[in-house]
Amino acid sequence: MLDSGFGLYAPSYRGYAGSDGSPTEIDLISDGREHFESVAGRTDQIIIHGESMGTGVATAIAAERPETGLLVLEAPYTALVDRASEQYPWLPVGLLMIDQMPTRERIGNVQAPILIVHGTQDVVIPVEHGKKLFERAENPKEILIVEGAAHNNLWSQGLWPAVLDAWRKVNAEG
Q: pLDDT by residue (tens digit) across 137-147?
């Protein structure tokens, strides 16, 4: 990223990697708002990039902030509750989960261009989640399904060139 001329702002989530607090949906989104404000005070060209768990937060913030330049979702889920239901079909997870992170309900409110990147061999979050989000997203949108890629190797399978291409398109149209 830095070699491509971009800056990088990558805070850790509360409750993770030495950060204090508990990672609730409300608190994570609140943190995302604060982080966006911090970056927005320095530049008006912002790419919000969420990976895996972070795709729900990234989508929530992009849905609230129409000045987002590009939303990149790397191995996204439709909702945490959907993924939990897939893994535990015998449990009433919809009734049990407090933090459901319904990305599928928020993505239609995103006004920024969207790039979804997902691997066909992702066993953590199946590629169908990315495809379903793509269907619900408004234009402009792109999806890159990477044949043979898993959950954690999308960077080595062409994710960054796809982001650069999407960013060029945004700036050519804008």
A: 999 999 999 99
- Please say whether the beta carbons of 73 and 53 come within 8 A: no
Count CB neighbours of 23 within 10 A. 15
Residue 65: name the closest of 111, 25, 103, 107 by CA: 111
CB contact set of 118 (below 8 Å; sequence gap of 6+):
74, 75, 76, 125, 127, 129, 130, 131, 143, 144, 145, 146, 149, 154
Do 143 and 131 form a contact (C-beta atoms < 8 A)? yes
Question: What are the pLDDT digits (tens) for 40-97?
Answer: 988 889 999 999 999 999 999 999 999 999 999 999 999 999 999 999 999 999 999 9
CA–CA distances in Å: residue 111 to residues 71, 107, 141: 9, 9, 10
Global confidence as pTM: 0.94
Q: Are 100 and 60 in contact (CB under 8 A)?
A: no
